[in-house]
Inverse folding.
């Protein structure tokens, strides 16, 4: 059966291809920035002001800078009971833990989703970023799944979440190629565990600190189409559902890149690490090289660099993204 999006351009596949080409082309000689941090920030201000368009590529480091840490205080506050019983030490590894029942597994995921999707980030990093680019022709491609761009006010039509969304479920039945909003389910599952809302309507641990580490069996999510089991809409393997919304965003990204490929474009990379560089980092390098009017900027803590081939048009700032954006 032909889908509506079969004839749309696939920006995701195109960016992967650019990334793979970059791997084959660039040398191993890396550039880590020139001049003081203040000079680099001044150059970035100029690029932002003069650019015809800005393509933002965001990775996990951006959300970490915004306070969405997966270990430490946040984990100990909201998952202390899971840590004590199962020895789990952070939210990321907990997502792979073989829990003894579905009731316990979905209790974990309700918390994981809520505290990383349905609340605002502790720090205003995303809102600060929007203030910087809101007056520009921008587009965002991100591997993050926490919805923080939209919560901060970014235009939904200018966003491409390549790896999924904590706010969506998908069926384990591969024949059902669509996603399902999980907000109502998450709120019920949080209440079932004993979380209480504060004056701002945000769930918190109750005063007595007592939580249930499971949800009722009737709350285990099932697909409304065929009653099959549900799972997260997160890209882990080829079972990831790329629904109609995903394909439309992919096509819009492709169109944005095509329309600006010969203009003064700033490829602004924020917090992209080494886990999935072929989605953002390597394609940004390749597109900067291909367009002599383009510039590349990398803001990252401890991982700010670019190939020597584009060093003369690159800005590499090593530091906390939150602090850098405030200085901008």
């Amino acid at each position: 059966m032909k889908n509506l999006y079969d004839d749309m351009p696939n920006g995701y596949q195109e960016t992967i291809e650019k990334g793979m080409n970059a791997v084959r082309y660039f040398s191993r000689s890396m550039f880590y920035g020139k001049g003081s941090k203040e000079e680099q920030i001044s150059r970035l201000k100029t690029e932002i002001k003069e650019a015809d368009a800005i393509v933002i590529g965001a990775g996990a480091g951006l959300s970490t800078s915004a306070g969405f840490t997966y270990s430490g205080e946040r984990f100990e506050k909201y998952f202390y009971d899971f840590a004590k019983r199962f020895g789990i030490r952070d939210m990321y590894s907990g997502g792979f833990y073989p829990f003894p029942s579905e009731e316990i597994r979905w209790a974990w995921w309700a918390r994981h989703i809520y505290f990383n999707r349905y609340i605002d980030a502790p720090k205003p990093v995303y809102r600060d970023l929007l203030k910087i680019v809101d007056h520009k022709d921008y587009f965002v491609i991100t591997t993050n799944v926490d919805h923080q761009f939209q919560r901060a006010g970014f235009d939904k039509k200018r966003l491409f979440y390549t790896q999924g969304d904590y706010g969506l479920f998908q069926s384990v039945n591969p024949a059902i190629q669509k996603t399902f909003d999980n907000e109502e389910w998450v709120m019920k599952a949080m209440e079932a565990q004993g979380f209480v809302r504060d004056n701002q309507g945000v769930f918190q641990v109750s005063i007595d600190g007592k939580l249930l580490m499971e949800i009722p069996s009737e709350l285990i999510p099932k697909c409304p189409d065929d009653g099959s089991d549900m799972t997260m809409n997160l890209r882990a393997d080829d079972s990831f559902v790329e629904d109609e919304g995903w394909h439309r965003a992919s096509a819009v990204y492709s169109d944005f890149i095509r329309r600006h490929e010969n203009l003064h474009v700033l490829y602004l990379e924020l917090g992209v690490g080494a886990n999935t560089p072929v989605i953002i980092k390597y394609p940004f390098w390749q597109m900067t090289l291909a367009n002599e009017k383009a510039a590349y900027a990398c803001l990252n803590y401890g991982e700010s660099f670019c190939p020597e081939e584009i060093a003369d048009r690159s800005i590499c700032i090593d530091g906390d993204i939150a602090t850098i954006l405030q200085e901008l």
